[in-house]
Write a structure and sequence with these properties.
The protein has two helices and five strands, in the order βαββαββ. It is of the alpha+beta class and 95 residues long. The N and C termini lie far apart (37 Å).
Length: 95
């Protein structure tokens, strides 16, 4: 039986652009068994799309929001489950 898989979209709000946020998220992803993307949005927020085993996904999001060197820039985050990501391998920054 395959492991359960969870996909989430997380919108990080605050001073999250121009502070190395996307690069920090990509670097942190190496420590977790997750796949996905991170990108800047036009409204100044950053969108994370991440998929993996539920514990890995939740731990990854928590690491970003609470433990990372950019956590203090986050004023709010909105997370929701999304359909599984297709054609996703590795973790990358989208321009």
């Amino acid at each position: 039986m395959p492991f359960p898989v969870l996909a989430k979209q997380v919108i990080f709000e605050g001073r999250v652009q121009g502070v190395g946020f996307r690069y920090t998220v990509k670097d942190l992803s190496r420590g977790f068994d997750v796949f996905g993307t991170v990108r800047n949005l036009a409204d100044g927020s950053v969108e994370l799309q991440v998929m993996g085993e539920p514990d890995e996904v939740e731990s990854f999001i928590k690491e970003i929001a609470e433990e990372s060197n950019v956590a203090h820039h986050i004023k709010n985050l909105i997370a929701r489950k999304v359909p599984l990501l297709e054609n996703c391998s590795g973790f990358r920054i989208i321009a």
